[in-house]
Amino acid sequence: MISDERLSKLSIAASVLGLLFLLFFYFFFEAKEKRVFEINENDLNSKVKMQGRIENVSLKNNVLVFDLIDLKKIKAVIFSPSKKEILIVENFDSVKVLGSVKEYRGELEIEVEEIIND
To answer: Can you say how many angstroms the Cα of residue 31 is from the centroid of all Cα atoms in its chain?
Structure first.
């Protein structure tokens, strides 16, 4: 049987290791804040946060597509959007998104994972 003192030490060690893992994950996998015009092929498959003006909104086959514009434009895509996401994109002039940079038919686009409310 494990003594109370040893169990306490193991609990503290596990907590410290867990916190170190969370810090590592936060610093190395945090989405980068980027402007639309800064996105290029080097950003493929990386997570980014960006803000831009919304234009050319379309919803077809449960896929919401719109242009995100900030000096340059990039296509943004939301698969299976929620009603809230549809309302935000259709009714606001600009939006901040979190997503991954992908390539589709030779063009870079953002697969939006979340619309950020600041």
So the answer is: 6
Question: What are the pLDDT digits (tens) for 29-80?
Answer: 667 889 999 999 999 988 999 999 999 999 999 999 999 999 999 999 999 9
Structure tokens that stand for 110 in this block: 């953002």
Residue 24 pLDDT > 80: no
Is the alpha carbon torsion for 84, 87, 89, 93 positive or negative?
negative
- The CATH classification number of 32-116 equals 2.40.50.140
In this structure, what is the dihedral angle of CA atoms 97, 99, 102, 108, given to the nearest 10 degrees?
20
DSSP 70: E
